[in-house]
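#structure-requests
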Amino acid sequence: MTKKVQSKLKLYGFNNLTKSLSFNIYDICYTKTEQDRKKYIEYIDEQYNSERLTKILTNVTESIGASVLNIAKQDYDPQGASVTLLISEEEVPLHVLDPSCNKGILTPIRKNIVAHLDKSHVTVHTYPETHPQNDISTFRVDIDVSTCGEISPLKALNYLIGSFDSDIITIDYRVRGFTRDVNGNKLFIDHGINSIQNYILDETLSNYSLIDMNIYQSNIFHTKMKINTINLDNYLFEISEKDLSIEERDKIFRRLNKEMTEIFYGINI
């Protein structure tokens, strides 16, 4: 896919366009017994605890060319975690930085501080859950990357998709507000885009079925992605495909596919 190279816009004052990228990423798993479902939730909580999520969001911040002002993180009981990073387009000098900002240095005293926002933020929340009847467990992670200025959250797209086992992905991107060029004309977007898919690697696109719903006049873009191939061993917890009969494989495949289809289209089948 050809990527356009654009010349830099000459602006009057600060670029105050707000660019927001939101993800829902779903990982689906077959958990045969109640014990398996409990173990799956424990596994997810261990794999995607607040410490690992903080590392992912810190990498996101670096990938879009921003600096960390503050980190707040929390693991929840019985499951789930949340992390919030307040970020700036450029490094903020220490003599300007609000005293409540921890610069990402977490100590027992300061670990739950939420501080002032410079221009931008990155957040993540996790939601592990199990289906009450059909032995399917689902892990959902919600990620929001919101920036002002020249930095773009779209730069984080491929890193975020690759950071999770992404069976179903829904992505929203919106540009809000306006900035002005040197002649005083309003600019409601400062880059070319006709689909979020423009910014996703071709290798990734080939692995998914995708649907776009865009409102171009409002700079609102929405893309849904569903994995093309269900390799059963990738979705079994505590068991292997070779241990299953053909009938069992078919039943599990149908349940997994049904769950993914319902999430992808947002309907109950």
